[in-house]
Design goal:
With 220 residues, the chain is mainly beta. Helix content is 13%, strand content 64%. Strand 2 and strand 3 (64-85) form a beta hairpin. The chain is elongated. This is PorT family protein.
C-alpha cells in the first residue's frame, strides 16, 4: 500500500511537470531533530542531525503546486545509562546514527505568494547505519587499567546496516515562508509509517523514524 502511494505520487509529479505554469529550482539545508518511536524506546532520546539537498517547485495553478525534493538526512536516536558497582561508575551513551537519502513529493497550497503549506509521502533509501558507543568511567576503583578494559569492551563504533531496512516510508507536512529575493524558511515534520527493523526477529518489534526539520534555502 505504501509503495502504491509513492508510485501514484510519482505519476502525479510527472503529469504536473508537463502541465506546469511555472517551475523553480532550489537548494536547502537545515537541522534535524530526529527520534525513533515504537517498541522499547521509552528510555531513548532524540538525536540532532542535519539535512541538505535540492528541490523543484512546480506551480500548476495560482494556489496549488507540487514540490519533489531529494535530501541527505542524518537521523537516529540515542540511549544514556549510568551504572555503579564496586566503586566504579560507568556512564554510557549509545547513538544510533541512521542516514537516508529522502525523496518527499509534496503537494503545496499557497495562501499568499510568500506563505504556503505542504504535505505528502516521503520515501527514504538507507545511506548508512552505525551505532556509536561512548563510555565514561569514574570512581575510587576506576584505575587506568580498569578504565582501559571497560572502554575496550563497551566503546567504539559498529555497523548496524544489516539490521535496518533499506527503504523507509513517511508522511511529511510543513509550512514555508518565501522572501521576494528567493530565500525561504521552512518547518516540517515527517512521521514514520514503516518498521525500520530488519533481520532475524525483526517482526517481533516495530520502530519508526520521526523527524522535525527547520530549513533555510534559495529557489529561482
Amino acid at each position: 500500500m505504501k509503495k502504491q502511494v509513492v508510485l501514484v505520487a510519482i505519476a502525479l509529479f510527472a503529469f504536473t511537470f508537463t502541465n506546469a505554469q511555472d517551475i523553480k529550482f532550489g537548494a536547502k539545508a537545515g537541522v534535524n531533530f530526529a527520534s525513533v518511536g515504537g517498541d522499547f524506546t521509552e528510555d531513548s532520546e532524540g538525536l540532532t542531525g542535519f539535512h541538505i539537498g535540492g528541490l523543484v517547485e512546480i506551480l500548476i495553478s495560482e494556489k496549488f503546486g507540487i514540490q519533489p525534493e531529494i535530501l541527505y538526512s542524518a537521523q537516529g536516536n540515542k540511549f544514556e545509562e549510568t551504572t555503579s558497582d564496586i566503586g566504579i561508575t560507568a556512564k554510557s551513551t549509545s547513538k544510533q546514527k541512521i542516514d537516508y537519502i529522502n525523496i518527499p513529493i509534496l503537494g503545496k497550497y499557497y495562501f499568499t505568494e510568500e506563505f504556503s503549506v505542504e504535505a505528502g509521502p516521503q520515501i527514504g533509501f538507507l545511506a548508512s547505519a552505525n551505532r556509536e558507543n561512548d563510555i565514561e568511567v569514574s570512581g575510587e576503583n576506576a584505575t587506568p587499567e580498569v578504565i582501559a578494559i571497560i572502554e575496550s569492551q563497551s566503546g567504539g563504533e559498529q555497523d548496524i546496516s544489516d539490521s535496518v531496512k533499506g527503504t523507509d516510508f513517511s508522511l511529511a507536512a510543513g509550512a514555508t515562508y518565501r522572501l521576494p529575493m528567493g530565500v525561504f524558511f521552512s518547518a516540517r515534520y515527517a512521521l514514520g509509517l514503516s518498521n525500520i527493523n530488519d533481520g532475524p526477529g525483526s517482526d517481533n518489534f516495530k520502530n519508526q523514524n520521526n523527524v522535525a526539520q527547520l530549513s533555510v534555502g534559495y529557489s529561482f
